[in-house]
Amino acid sequence: MELDRKKDTSMVYWLRDIFSDVTGLVVVDEYLEQELVVPSIALETGPMSSQPFEMGSRTKQFFRTWYIDLYAKNAEQRNEMAYRIMRELDNGISVYDYDEGFPPDVSPTKIGTIGVLEQKYDPISVVPDLLETMYWRGSVTIFTEYSEV
User: Do residues 128 and 31 lie in contact, with contact meaning Cβ atoms separated by under 8 Å?
Assistant: First the structure.
């Protein structure tokens, strides 16, 4: 599995772990295309870039933007989801070697950390007249840097 795919998978498991106490919450690794289940979280990847780290070296720093879309039953639930994510980002996100297997059957080896350089929460207004079922949206955007163990 490519390293970037391991980062994606680590992000999904990280989100599932921090919301493991919320009954019925769905976390998907894609733009939400299936029928909406509320509450849900959809993880979308954004731009990726790299830049040289040291002169005369081929070592690079890798940067990536992530969009964590929130779908909730009301404003309070949406905000609580965002606050929990923002609080947990302070610890960074561990990246694991999923070539070894997946939880809960296997505890894969940690191979790096996604460190958060910038984070932002945007509540998104929804026009009730345009929806059959009312739900509340929000988006947490994070700009990250990956570092190996």
Answer: no
